[in-house]
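User: As part of a screening pipeline, I want to sanity-check one entry by hand. Below is the sequence and the SMILES for zinc ion. Please return the complex as structure tokens so I can compare it with the automated output.
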Amino acid sequence: MSVRELVVLGTSSAVPTRHRNHNGYLLRWDGEGFLFDPGEGTQRQMLHAGVSAHDVTWICVTHFHGDHCLGVPGVVQRIARDKVNHEVRAAYPASGEIYWRRLRNASAFADTDVITPRPVSGEVVRWPSGPVTLTARPLSHPVQSYGYRVDEPGGRRMLPEELARRGVRGPMIGELQRNGSLTTPDGSTVTLDECSAPRPGQSAAFVMDTRLCDGAFALADGVDLLVIESTFLSDESAMAAQYGHLTAAQAGQIAAACGVRRLVLTHFSERYTTADEPRFVDEVRKSYAGDVVTARDLMRVPVPKRGDYQVQRATK
Ligand SMILES: [Zn+2]
Ligand SMILES: [Zn+2]
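Assistant: Here is the complex for your manual check:
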């Protein structure tokens, strides 16, 4: 069965706290595993979360502040030690190449050749990856930062009643899907369009660290799952602006404007505790009525199923 879920490895900005590790997120999508922003301690968090180095097919770094990349050396060396034999592509801002090289080669270890760099520059970059496309777009932060988005292509959903009405059954269904039309035993022509309906692809976006900017909206547009930084509450909005971060209210504005189905808030300042989580939700609720999750370490958040618009709170 295909698995589409976010495994939360860490949720703290700047510094880890007693309850929150530095950032780290694995988006499992069918056979792909996108490891976003492995902060310090990610290797051990993977162990706690039941994530193996073999599950990782991409390492996507938004920017080279330490809370988003200090876990790269441990993850890279674990990939080498565990003899992962599939390609692991690594996307990161090209302007931070010097930091990537240091992190990639941080200590003495028996190296691997499966990790292939994909430095990102320009306004939009897309890579096909298994069943999906990975897209990077620039954000707005004191150092260059890119957000990412995963998109499944749209397809078609077969309509059993229409198939039955036209006498299409068994191997004929596969023939119809392959060829777009077929002639039934009674001599009539049946087309794929008559017996199926469009099925929109699913999508997820990962937005951090950033101010409000066009890239954040473009990445979040229409996604089923948006993982977004909400470092501060609105009473610290001056600090958010100064350091290039979002408030929970701004994260809610993005989710509302983009028609996001499930919103995951994370990258919390160490000034807040879990007792403050309802305040983050309250700010989001001023603009966004959809499903909101305030991320905690080791939480698993499913990508909402198609047509499943019920509010679901993910639990550990
Ligand atoms: Zn950060
Ligand atoms: Zn940052």
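Points to compare against the pipeline: The pocket of zinc ion (ligand 1) is lined by residues 13, 65, 67-68, 209, 267 (CB under 6 Å). The two ends are 21 Å apart (CA to CA).
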